[in-house]
Amino acid sequence: MTTSTPTSLFSEFSAQSKAQWEAQVAKDLKNPEAVQGLVWNSPDGLVVPSFATPEDRPQGGVFVPKSSKGWQFRECILADNQAQANTEALAAIEKGAQEITFVLSGKNADYQTLFKKINLKETPVTVALSEDFGALLSFLEKNNATLTPLKGGFAFDPIKEYLTKGTPLAACFEQLAAAFTLMKDSAHWSGLQVSSSYFQAAGASVPQQVGLTLAAVVEYWNKLSDKGLDIKTLSAKTELEVGVGTHYFMEIAKLRALRLLLSKVNAAFGNEAAAPSAIHATTASYTLATTDPDTNMLRHTTEAMSATIGGADSLSIAPHTSDYSPFTSRIARNISTLLREESYLDRVTDASSGSYYIENLTDEVAKAGWEFFQAIEAKGGLLAAFETGFVQESVAENHAKHVALWKEKKWVLVGVNKYLNPKEAAPEAHEAAAQTTASGVRLLTPVPLYEAAQS
């Protein structure tokens, strides 16, 4: 006796065409033109229909490869005081954090103290730093008989440092190549974290974020390939750090589109069978509010849901206030725990697969993101496009649209531009001063939306 699995849970019911749905909408709303008006003009310039049917689904669906179900919660800890950071990390691991990121801002870190009692074979540790990269490599090589089983990675993104601070690129690609070479046999250690959250923080649209992220990846892969590294190693050891905002479905589609397009980039490098690069999602700083800050907990919850449903491999949730305290860290950590333990979002590999709306939106974001990526490549790549001002001008233009929507209350931040707490003072208005590189090229300056709108 054989059994078959139906392709649809509702196969016994007759399917309705999109035209039939539209006719029903027109009938119910007593307006033949109603369907044309039922669209969402997103802040990022995409026109999104109010509903979708199988007819809107991209041919064959949108396959989003991911190696496993669920995600790992990665707690970020400021680590300029290495002893205190180590204590906080051990406490976070005990209370549910599965990974740690140590954020270092200076040189001469005491890695022996920082990593004390942390088993790098069990708990992945990412080290985020902007300089003194060689000291960390020396520590790992000196203090581990074998590097193969270590878990974690380097969050060293010199292109980000150049685009946002003007830090010279100098010998950074040689340092990255050395890191890849040292950790080449460590399957669970990423050699490169390509950050894109700063594009979002500067006001880039979702398609722009996708295009800029791909451009950054290509820039790194080209330069590191020139240093003798093969594309399979580069792809497998690259992690994307992506900021996730409050536009729920759009952010789900953004992560899915990134996976889809990254496979296309791999194919262009001759790496068709590439294992998917990991995606690390972070909550957005762009829409974080200082007034009525408790509302940020709700924003972080929807952002975390978008990240996990969109297929992030790991997730960091910032404290809902500017205060990194045991309380705010616990709240952030517990958002992830609730999504796992009570919402069961870790039970499937691709939670949004089969949703006509999300798959159609993924396709639209991918098309628009790829178009912007091609525009950057036509100017010689990310660094060349930055030098001409194309990147900054494109992002600034979109940021200005966001600010206008915010001021008109068409983009609502509860407790900030609508439903304000009358007992709280309005945020102080200020405009970020324009900054430039040593050669006078304007930098990408992250500015929270509410601050820009107040100026």
UniProtKB/TrEMBL annotation:
Domain Methylmalonyl-CoA mutase alpha/beta chain catalytic: 109-432
Gene3D superfamilies: Methylmalonyl-CoA mutase (3.20.20.240)
Pfam families: MM_CoA_mutase
Listed GO MF terms: cobalamin binding; intramolecular transferase activity
Database matches in PANTHER family: METHYLMALONYL-COA MUTASE, LARGE SUBUNIT, METHYLMALONYL-COA MUTASE, MITOCHONDRIAL-RELATED
Name the record gives this protein: Methylmalonyl-CoA mutase
